[in-house]
Amino acid sequence: MRYVVGIDIGGTNIVAGTVPEDGSELVGLVSEPTFPEQGADAVVARIVKLARASVAAARGKEIAGVGIGAPGPLDTARGVVLLTPNLGWTNFPLRDRVVQALGLPATLDNDANCAIFGEWWRGAARGANHVVGLTIGTGIGGGIVLHGEIYHGASDIAGEIGHMTIDSNGRRCKCGNYGCLEAYASGPAIAARAVEGIEAGAETTLPSYVQGELARITAQVVYEAAHDGDAYALDVVRDTAHVLGAGVANIVNVFNPEVVVICGGVTLAGDRLFVPLRSEVKRRAFKPAVDACRIVPGALTGTAGVYGAAAVFVKRTWGRL
Amino acid sequence: MRYVVGIDIGGTNIVAGTVPEDGSELVGLVSEPTFPEQGADAVVARIVKLARASVAAARGKEIAGVGIGAPGPLDTARGVVLLTPNLGWTNFPLRDRVVQALGLPATLDNDANCAIFGEWWRGAARGANHVVGLTIGTGIGGGIVLHGEIYHGASDIAGEIGHMTIDSNGRRCKCGNYGCLEAYASGPAIAARAVEGIEAGAETTLPSYVQGELARITAQVVYEAAHDGDAYALDVVRDTAHVLGAGVANIVNVFNPEVVVICGGVTLAGDRLFVPLRSEVKRRAFKPAVDACRIVPGALTGTAGVYGAAAVFVKRTWGRL
Question: ipTM value of the model?
């Protein structure tokens, strides 16, 4: 059995793991902060160090190559990161830098694509033909897997589902568009909505979770309070389910996928989110498309991107998964 | 050279034509009203009559089969129309009825899929890898062609782009959802918007086009008045471009296609629609995705569905186009 190192590069952390070509396990899982402010060379050095640490921890496996997932936009064919605001890179030949340092072949794909491909390969969307997924965190990323392959579009930009307009006269989004899904349902958007309500006088225990410092309320804190039964936090989760439902209904009507998988911290909200989300999608989308589709949380918490990055290497190198 | 009869079945008209396997011409173009109220048997008889008339007009061509495009939802593998409100059919084995009557093999696909596939094969989207298209008429249909193949999704429902929500708290759509693109940019929606404004006191020459009977204002009439320089009609066209722009921007961000092709009567508005539409998409969507994409009117007015239905037969029967 040949093994592949999967590396998931985020703005906050880099995660690496070693996966056999059949994806049956993940060994040597290691992680470190990214510290992008130290510059590209330092980040590459950290990637290389983590890859070596993962290989060492995986002990004696035959390593065939490295799959890298990074924020985009990318040029996947050339292995170049065109631009990442989070990392501060422009036209950076990430793949070849890793190849040179490790002496192993490598592939590069978008981080959200990798996460959804990982969920398709070994997670919540296993066995499906067509999967569309969202990764909800600081932003909302998207990945599209059709006929078991990542769909990249004409110039590797496909899948910007977070920047689908669901309210054309709505809030301005960081991307310049108006009413993007991300402007309502990203982690920071959920936290901001919670804080707005508190400032407008909502009764809630939320401030007690952050010693009264409202600026420290995150989406995670909202889920925690909802879990503890805070009625206002539950309302915020339900509102999130409604806006997310409009976006997922669009996906269901346009892609008619077998699975919509939702990854990221938002899955911590569990059924409090997924039950109203599913009923909102049912209310909005075409019945035969709804009937054909499962809407599920990601199953590979923290490792979907590693599995998926490795899967991209396997698929591109050996032609199948 | 083998020939295929393409048949495009609409709620108003049936159009048939005969196309060689390389799509290089369309001969024997014939058409008749559908008269769906006469029942399925009468419509099938008319389809068969038109197919024969087209073959006769095409004179001496070797006919290999028939491609049928019909409103859905369909089961394309079984050749069954599951449900068409416009035609009043439920679980109707359209393909096999045509096969029996004509003694020729046949294929069935969705009418909007066929129109966009036709534009990809022989029209405005020729040569592109990834094409997403809209057919704007009484409703808004959609077709998705990826890697040169129609994308059908898990249960043949994919491509319902007209029912993408662009305003989640917006107008209720006939489909039950809220704020669908179709509720703002279909022919009747454009006409209704024009009439609302007139009733609210807008100054315009539009009523003179319909002898003062506002109920007779159609989208076509609005385009005609815009063409003649009526400032209010021009405003209605520009508003249409804006809502359509939000929908097309979603397509561009999600699919990153090489071409977005827009078919139907709306193309009569020409640059008055397409210039503000392109600038609205540019304002909303990601630059690398916008840069990779042409937004164009369909080139095969009235025959895209015939070409596409024939193309589906060619592709499924001989594996390539």
Answer: 0.96
